[in-house]
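User: Predict structure, ligand 3-acetylpyridine adenine dinucleotide.
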Amino acid sequence: MTTSTNTGAALPTTCDVLIVGAGFGGLYMLHKLRQLGFDAHVIEAAAGVGGTWYWNRYPGARCDIESIQYSYSFDDELQQEWNWSERYAAQPEILAYAEHVADRFGLRSGITFSTRVTATTYDAARNLWMIDTDRGAQVNARFCIAAVGCLSTPQVPSWPGVENFAGEIYHPGAWPHEGVDLRGKRVAVIGTGSSGIQIISAIADEVEHLTVFQRTPTFAFPAHNRPLSPEDLAAAKARYSEIREAARRAPQGRAFATEGRPLLGDTPDQRDEVLRRYWAMGGLDFTKAYDDISSVLEADAVAADFVRDRISEVVQDPAKREVLLPRGHPISAKRPCLEINYFASFNRPNVEIVDVRANPIVEVTATGIRTTAATHDVDVIIVATGYDAMTGTLLRLGVVGRDGVALTEAWAAGPRTYLGVLVDGFPNFFIVAGPGSPSVFSNVILAIEQHVDWISDLLTFARSAEADLVEADPAAAQEWTAHVTDIGERTFLSLGNSWYRGANIPGKPQVVMPYVGGTHVYRDKCDAVAAAGYPGVSIS
Ligand code: N01
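Assistant: Predicted complex:
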């Protein structure tokens, strides 16, 4: 039975599995479950597929995992037929890829677009999830799978007076589809994370004046992006299975180059040669050049000095350089960025840097931004201030589990999961690539594939056992979460104020949320649980 909507597929009133989100997680989840004979349906808030790549249409938006690796591996024909045009794909190309996947596998017939989930309530008497939407319709499903992404709820700080600003305000994650004409305008960018630095590089030469408000200077490495030639593509495709296997066995879900030895064991000349070589290659492998850059402070200090030296070679103005040089935390305490002419942008006379750690923003006025040191009049403010990451969107689904307990209550001290997939007290509810799993701490597409496959195996296992209830044991969830936290707190992530640990959201519990013990280690743990008949999960 169905109720009709005029946006995508009609919303069913019932289905076996309701999936929330049509990004890379939801698309593959739908495909896989259909193949296994489940009646699955997707609800998506956007008017199209692609998730993060649907929303993030800001100038310069690009992925910093190489396109050959940041793509699905589940279908060899798909990976052989798709031709990436650049080493690092830009947003329009990644969105086109998501659309291609949706069409190629006939997925749109199972997706209702432009519909937001407003409440997700478990009815224990019927063992069903009741999913309410902003269209008034409700879907009843035995299983509910949240594939909502980790960076999908934009965070805008509540500066006093922001409602009085007479100009335009934009967040990168909700960029207007028709684009924004910034030519000849005075533009402020607040935030110098991955989104901010891409925007700054992309718009520096078209705006009249660009004022960058920086709180924490950014460790960024050159991307050395370039077109992929037919020869590049042929070479990658010829060894695709090898590349994918290396990625699956890699700590962060992507094949990488490394010297495979500690920096501290090398002489200064050797270190310089190695670091220069990785810098010249470009990409995130810089932190992988040596085994200890991301784990031993003394090694990090050498690499950080090297980065500062390279930035100093680019930025000509000593005052700007002083503000831009990253200091105060190890490189891997926050997400390192890739840059294309970011530091060089500050050599333009129309690009200004404002240190808001030294002089914080006091208020937004009708005409601009006032810090403790000065007032900056602007026409447009771009708030590249990040996301309520990892838990923000999940908690906004209004999830209420067994005994009327809300997920917001259950997770008041931070996310608690079993293997990042199941939540105790929330039967038949699953999360794709969220907190407690490698997700954003890895090449997220391979992380998604691993989760989708694992959840599908579990549902198939339950179906063969004629079971219709799957739930994490509280002790297993507690033990897993303690393990995730323990590993996280022993890494450099505990030393930075990053979104990985909720530090960017006032009042949010500060705990390292992704599993950072290695994608390959995690995969083995999940496989072992499945092979042993799912200890830690009640299946009845
Ligand atoms: O967000 P962020 P993002 N006053 O949280 C600053 C992925 N991604 O959207 O560091 C002033 O990283 C904040 O300062 P501080 C990627 O995983 C990938 O850029 O908190 N400033 C910081 O500079 C990434 O990590 C790609 O001191 C304030 C910035 O805003 C994640 O998404 C591209 C402030 C926020 O940086 C998020 O990136 C884009 C305030 N009140 C995104 N509040 C690629 O693949 C925050 N800031 C390339």
